[in-house]
Design a protein that fits this description.
Layout: H1 2-43, E1 52-57, E2 60-67, H2 70-81, E3 88-91, E4 94-95, H3 104-125, E5 134-139, E6 142-149, H4 152-163, E7 170-177
Parallel strand pairs: 2-3, 2-4, 6-7
Antiparallel strand pairs: 1-2, 5-6
């Protein structure tokens, strides 16, 4: 009887420890994703990250708060959904201003700003690319990369990251390899 009771108590303790470890692992991953999301929004020059809140549960990022336009709302969602570990984005951002006065040219420049921001963010999060040394400009879907990189491989990776970004039609490579 003592052995059975001891075995049951040990099994219960190990099961509880395994469940607690799993919950801790999931919470850590969500906290890591939340930190990346907050950093991504903070680094974006087109969004006021202090008006956007992020909450992460099981890889789903919920965005709440206010933005100036529907383009800003879409930009925030796209930036976050492209982060590693994010399974879904629940965009509950509200638009503070009316978009009716926005013209097509304004939409084009905002789209270009979004493209440049997404490319720059991806370069910054890629450990094999010195994203801080690369300038990213976008105009009408054409991305221009300028700056200095350490190797041809780094240059090729930076160009590939830009080419594989949504809404990029063409990449102009003006990157220089350091001698």
């Amino acid at each position: 009887m003592k052995t059975t009771t001891l075995a049951m108590m040990m099994t219960l303790a190990l099961t509880t420890t395994a469940v607690a470890a799993n919950n801790w692992k999931d919470a850590s991953k969500d906290a890591w994703i939340d930190g990346k999301a907050e950093t991504t929004l903070l680094l974006n020059g087109n969004l006021n990250s202090f008006d956007i809140n992020t909450d992460v549960k099981n890889g789903t990022v919920t965005l709440t708060g206010k933005v100036e336009s529907a383009v800003d709302k879409a930009l925030a969602e796209e930036l976050i959904e492209n982060l590693d570990g994010v399974t879904r984005v629940d965009n509950k951002l509200t638009v503070a201003a009316s978009d009716q006065h926005t013209k097509d040219s304004d939409n084009s420049s905002l789209k270009d700003a979004k493209i440049a921001t997404v490319v720059k963010t991806r370069l910054l999060f890629e450990s094999e690319v010195s994203g801080t040394s690369i300038d990213v400009d976008a105009k009408h879907g054409v991305v221009t990369l300028k700056g200095e990189v350490a190797s041809d491989a780094e240059k090729d990776l930076a160009v590939a990251i830009a080419k594989n970004t949504d809404d990029v039609d063409k990449v102009i490579d003006k990157l220089q390899v350091a001698q």
